[in-house]
Amino acid sequence: MTDWVLRLIDAGGYWGIFALMVLENLFPPIPSELIMGIGGIRVGQGRMDMGLLLLAGTLGTTLGNYAWYLVGRLLGFERLRPLVDRFGRWLTMEWRDVEALDRIFMRYGQIAVFVFRFMPVFRTMISLPAGLFRMGHIPFLLWTMAGALIWNIILAGAGYVLGYNFRDIDTWIGPLATATVAIAAIAYLYRLATWRPRGQG
Predict the structure, then answer these.
(1) pLDDT higher than 50, residue 201
(2) In a domain, 199, yes or no
(3) Number of domains in the chain
């Protein structure tokens, strides 16, 4: 994956960074760590400007997340009810659970959107409930941009400092993301096996 990302960045410059960061948030297996890290390397080589790199990466991240937010917004909170009623067993939740999540998200949603920007895999997933639970467009965009900017500064800064050694990050990003997904899958299977509707003992 490293060579493919390198070619696109070198061919497209800032537009390549922007496009890759949009794709990274639509298809999470593409690692932002690698994209912005290589961008940082290019800054160290004098081939990119750090400010423009961060602008392209942050706008790409925000646009990719906004797409998932709009999907949630279009689906809508009330349209969830038939799905929950029908597939509640597989979702391991009842409608009262969704209502509780709605209350929690309305209170802490902005913090969640910001904090989840620093978590592998889940940083994109948080955009869907943000739309479902009707978080405002402007707050969502602002908190997403704030979290993305900080995360991109860290990644690009690491690439700038570490140079070509940063390319080795691809060898452990993949296993880390896989482990995160595996843990989430195990947690879901355990909840699925132990979950009972409140009316049952």
Answers:
(1) no
(2) no
(3) 1
| pLDDT tens digits, 115-160 | 877 766 566 777 878 888 888 899 999 999 999 999 899 889 888 8
Contact present, 42 and 48 (Cβ < 8 Å): yes
Does the residue 13 lie in any domain?
A: yes
Host domain of residue 109: 2-194
Residue with tokens 């990274």: 24
Taking every pair of Cα atoms in the chain, the longest distance, rounded to a whole number of angstroms, is 66
77 falls within a domain? yes
Higher pLDDT, 126 or 65: 65
pLDDT in tens, 184-198: 677 667 766 776 766
For the chain, what is the radius of gyration of the CA atoms? Answer: 19
Residue 201 lies in a domain: no
User: Within 13 Å and on the Cβ side, how many CA atoms surround 158?
Assistant: 16
Residue 184 sits at φ, ψ, to 5 deg, of -65, -40
Q: What's the DSSP call for residue 29?
A: T
Q: Which two tokens stand for residue 107?
A: 């209170």
Whose tokens are 């940063």? That residue is 166
- Both tokens of 87, joined, read 């597939």
CB burial readout 99-126, b (16+ within 10 A) else e:
eeebeebeeebbebbbebbeebbebbeb
